[in-house]
Amino acid sequence: MITGLDRTFYSRSDLVRNLSRKAVLFAVMASLLMPTLALAADRGPVITAGGESVSEQEMIGLIMDQSGVDRMMAPFVLSQLSVEDRENFAKQVSVALLLSEAARGKGLQLDPSVAAKLKWNAVNILAQAFVSSASSKWDLGRPALEAWFSRHKDEYNMPEAVHVRHILVGSEEEATDVLLEVFARGADFGAVAAKRSIDPGSANSGGDLGWVSRGQTVPGFDELAFSLEPGRIGGPVETKYGWHVIQVLEKRHARATTLDEVLPRVREDIQKHYLDLEVERLEASLGLEIDHEILSTLGGFPAFKKDQ
Asked: Which residues touch 207 (CB under 8 Å, ≥6 apart)?
């Protein structure tokens, strides 16, 4: 039985082009009234190609995967597909099966590069399935989120930050000239940044770096940025990247946050905590070994240390 197909063989737009807005709204309403709607029993293979087959339920599953709609909506999605839609989809699935069977006939699944892809596709699918199964038991209710937030409140404080833009150049002389251009000649800071800054990540946006928290940037830049008041320009200051002229646009003081302000982050953090516990349990029960010596010299190429 097949477990999946390359999505290049068929597209969602082809599959659901006849699914109207009205039908979707009807399906949503109906799903609230009919949560246990059942599909007909499987009547056997819909497609057989060589030694592979696709059962009726598999075919429905493929259609639902491509439509992006929950499986309980299958009756409504299927009712919107014409005979031609279904035949076209089946043809695309058939082509994938035939090509797959031909590859197996040639033993291509034994090719090292193909075998590695098959292995890691299976690993990722099974890992996702395990997480999906395990996470159904995780407590993500409001009381659990409130308790987590209360225990880790300091981690969610809003740090002191500045909204800053800069002009990066290669020498102190250039930086001094930039200051003269902005101050003495009254040039627009953003325009000068776009014209003269060598920072490819910010030059096109007028040197804008967005909000930067204290300690997030290199020391010299950080100290100058947080010493300036909004609207002020400072520099030049040298860092390992070059010479900077800095303008602070806004300043934000550190403050505590409420749960609702950081709810998505709290939910993500507690999910990560639950997953870490699952991984620790699996490591203890299944065992895990990592050869750090081999890892540090993969293929004969020594890894560098980030602090060097």
From this structure: 165, 166, 167, 168, 189, 190, 193, 194, 197, 199, 247
